[in-house]
Amino acid sequence: MFDEKFWLTISFVIFAILMAKYVLPLIIKMIDDSSKKIADDVVAAKNLKNQAEELFLEAKKHHQETIQHCKKLADDAEGEVKKLISQSQASLDHDLKIKLDAAVMRIKNQEENIIRDLKTKIVEDALAAVKNDLAGNLDQQQNNKLVDSKIASGF
Hints:
Number of helices: 2
Strand content: under 5%
Mean pLDDT: 88
Order of helices and strands: HH
Distance between the termini: 175 Å
Helix content: over 70%
Number of strands: 0
Structural class: mainly alpha
């Protein structure tokens, strides 16, 4: 009486009704949940992007401040180095002058000592020569007079 197409159609309609009543709401719910999750993820991504941009701007500002601070430190260090070099040069010049003056004074003292020793040696040699020459010609009293007069006259 009913042929196969009829039962196939009835089965398909029952299957479609069951699907529409039980499975379709689950599929729609899953799709809605997924779309809501995607929308939430998009909003969260936008928020994270905004936060990342803010952090990037802060980092860029901090980087510029750091560069300026480093330049200031370098300028300050260069000034300190120049100041230390100037002070060191002045101190070195002062120490060198003191040592040079001391060396000149030692040389002068040594020259004076050598000249005095040389004069003394010359006088002693001259006195010895005169004493030897006069020893035969003069008596002791005349010899002492001659030596005393030479000593008194300053050679």
